[in-house]
Every structure is written in C-alpha cells, then in structure tokens.
Amino acid sequence: MTAIPSPTIRNFIGGKWLTPTSPAGIALTNPATGELLGQTPAGSAAEVDAAVKSAQAAFPSWRATPAADRVQYLFKLKVLLEQHIGELASLITIENGKTLAESTGELRRGIENVEVACGIPVLMQGYSLEDVAPGIDEFMVRQPLGVAAIITPFNFPLMIPLWFLPYAIATGNTVVLKPSDRVPFSVARLVELIQETGLPDGVVNLVNGGKPAVDTLLDHPLVRAISFVGSTPVAKYVYTRGSASGKRVQCQGGAKNHVVVLPDADQETTTKIIADSAFGCAGQRCLAVSVTVTIGEASRWFPASIAAAASSLKIGDGLDPATQMGPVITTASRDRVVSLIGQGADQGAKAIIDGRANTGDRAGFFVGPTVLDGLPAQSPLMQTEIFGPVLSVIHAQTVEEAMEIIDRSAYGNASSIFTASGAAARKFRNAVSTGNVGINIGVPAPMAYFPFSGWKGSFFGVMHAQGRDAIEFFTDKKVIVERWPREWSRKF
Ligand code: NAD
Question: Annotated active-site positions, please?
Fold first, then answer.
C-alpha cells in the first residue's frame, strides 16, 4: 500500500525543492480515517514572487525551444504517468477520499490532456494568405504569453492541474502551479515526475498555500494568465481581481447539475448511470447530478429505483477495492452536507434514503447517499451547491418545464436527458442553458480535445479548459503583413 511519502510539503522553485518559510496553514487529514497527514503552509508573497521570477527567467529560452522539442518532455511525462498510475491513484485516494477506481479514472482523463498537448506543433499553427494586396502577404502566428498561474481545487487533485499545465508549457509558457491546500501530496509527486522528464529548471514551479499565495499571483505584474477552478464565489473573486490587474483569466466555478428523466427512459440503465453520477466521488464532482427532474410517469418508478441503488452502495475507505463510495473531504464538509439534508427536509422534501444515519460510526468523514424526494422547485436548496452525495428528485410535466427549472439555476455547468426519443433529446440539447450536455449520459465530461464548457455562474471568462480553447487561452495572436518590393532587393 502506498503511504504519503513525507508529511513535509515543499515548494518547487527554479528546479529545487524548498522547505516553505511561510507559517503553517491547514492541517491535512485522510478523509477516510481521520489520520493526520501533514500541514499545508499558508504560502507567502515572497515564495510566490520567487516562483514567478523563476518562471519569468526560464521563459525566453523555453519559448525559443522548438515546439517539437518542447513536446518531447510531454511524451516522457505520459510514459511516467502510465508507469506510476497505481502509486498516484493511491495518493489521491489517501488525501482526497475517492475510491481507487475513481482516482485511476481521474488520472486517465489527466493523461488524455498530456496526449492532446503533444500535438501542439500542429495545433498551435497559425494561418496565412499570399497576395492580400499586390505583392503583400499576411500571416498569423500564435506566441506564448509568458508566466501562467494555475490554481486548482481539492476534488480532482491531478486531473485539473493537467487540464492546463500540458497546454501552457507545450505552447511555450512557463508555469506557477498553486494546488489546493487540501490535497498537496499527489501534485507534489506529479511535479517530481515532471522533474524526471528533464524539463529545464523554472519552466514548471510549484507553490503551496492558500489565499495569501493566490492573492500574490493575482496581483503579480509578471503573471500574464490565470487558470482557476474552484467554487463560484472564489472564481468570481479571482476573475475580478485578476482581470483588474490586466491578466487573461479563465475561472471555472461551482455547479448544480440537473438530469431530466422521461417516461420512456430505460429504467435499469438510467438508474445505474444516475446513481453513479450522483454518488460517485461522494458527490464531489463538478459534473455530479444534484437534481433529477422526472417527467410524467417517470415519477412513478424513479424515486424507488434510485433509492434502491443508493442503499446498495458499499461505503468505506477508498483504498479497499470493494468500496463503492468514499467519504467527503473534511468534517466541516460532512457537517455542512448533513445540515443541508436537514434543510431539504424542512423545505418540503422527504429523505427516502437518509445519509445522516451513516456518518457517526467511523473516524472518517462519511455521509451516506441521500435521496430527497419531492423537493419543491422553488425551494432555496435548489439553488445551493451541496457537493456531497445528495440527490434531490423533483417532478415536472414536460421537457419545457424541466428546462425552465434548469434555466432558473444560477449555475450552468451541465445537464442531461434520459430518453429513447431522439426528438425530445434534440429539443433538449438545442435549448437547454448549460455548457455541457449529456444525452443518456450521467457525467457529460468533455474529452480532452473538446472544451470544458461551463456557462452562467459555473464559468467566468471566454476560453475554457482543454483542447483548442486551451491553445487559444495560452497564446497571443500576432498578425504580420509583409511586403518585399523587388526594386529594394538585389536581383537574383
Ligand atoms: P475553493 O474555491 O475552496 O478552492 C479553489 C482554490 O482556490 C484552491 O486552490 C484554494 O486554495 C483557493 N482559495 C480558496 N479560498 C480562497 C480565497 N478566499 N481567496 C483566494 N483563493 C482561495 O474550491 P474547492 O472546495 O477546493 O473545490 C470545490 C469547488 O470547485 C466546487 O464548488 C466545485 O463545483 C468546483 N469545481 C468546479 C469545476 C468546474 O470545472 N467547473 C471542477 C472541479 C471543481
């Protein structure tokens, strides 16, 4: 079994592992056992400044390195990630709580982004046209920005850094990565593997910490771009403050995702897929379904069917291969989820499976899967991101009514429809107000070569994570208009 390699959390600046000088930040615990794992440093302006300056110093020669040479480090990283996938998955499970299968799944999605970024010599190309006027040619090239900061959340400790980092460096930028202060261990191992590729010093830097580290990045004059993923209030704050200091900023925020179940949906498959979406990763996925809207007759079978699926899940330590659902991240998170289940009941729902009964008998931070049936569509809980294994079920008469409910949500990360009707599915995907849409899919997570397209309060910015959007985000376009008059040149 993999253990945390060392409780000391270090920064990686200019190719050197350094012991933080900032005061202690939060205490880290294994969410499944309550065992103390270490303490994240709070992060200081001086450490962030050193990391940014190291990235800035590495930038000129990195940007001048041919793209085909830059991606060789990513090919090596892909091999190293595959070789260490079991060890990395165990680290994620120990610090985050998700099951080993979920940790491995997250790594696969992260590796996919490394693979896509290996295509940068083609993907980064611009375009050109000869003779835009007599004897004048014009072309567009993409150039890297400089230092890019990446700030990530706790729920996907490695996948989310990999949504950005491979594209940022492949396009010629240098990076300062500030991971979630709740899950610093697996990302430290990722950076060790990046170091093992032989990447030049300073191209990737790692600084641990919380708000002080983030604020320094947001204001630092040498940071050109910020990629952020986290909760909506912090996403808004990062977007506003980072943009105000002239940076290019992309911020992915929180979510409240709906699935619509039509009466003609296949009952068994639909239930299984929705249960996986709602309770997988203990509901701590930004694409987890939080509300199921049953249409017409679907309200007859769905609540009992999803309750049966929820109650059959084996809850426990994610390191045990038999575990199907792990804990939530902290005691505070567990208490919050428990309190929100109570609020759902107060607002008119019936807890047909009540996870509050499942919290107290272990040292870890467990909440059982919960189904709140009959939550009124106007209730405050409908607007609250719970971020735990809680599924609300509400009922509507038509797909239009369901889409109005989705439209009223402040979030727009994802929605799905379950049906055998192509016409209903088409209407839904055409008109629904979310940026990621699933048709008979529970977690409509875009592959690495498509953008991760949250809308409304789930995203602030223009270019999303992954794929072509990432290349646009991490580069500036330069357009050159060129004339070489024959009379100015020696004749050959
Ligand atoms: P969070 O907002 O608490 O933290 C995200 C990052 O911001 C961390 O690195 C943290 O250290 C930093 N941070 C926290 N508070 C800050 C503050 N006041 N000022 C400056 N920086 C601050 O998010 P979390 O709890 O780690 O992650 C869960 C959230 O992320 C959920 O809301 C989830 O929906 C969202 N999320 C969204 C997506 C997406 O693609 N839209 C993906 C994953 C997670």
Answer: 286
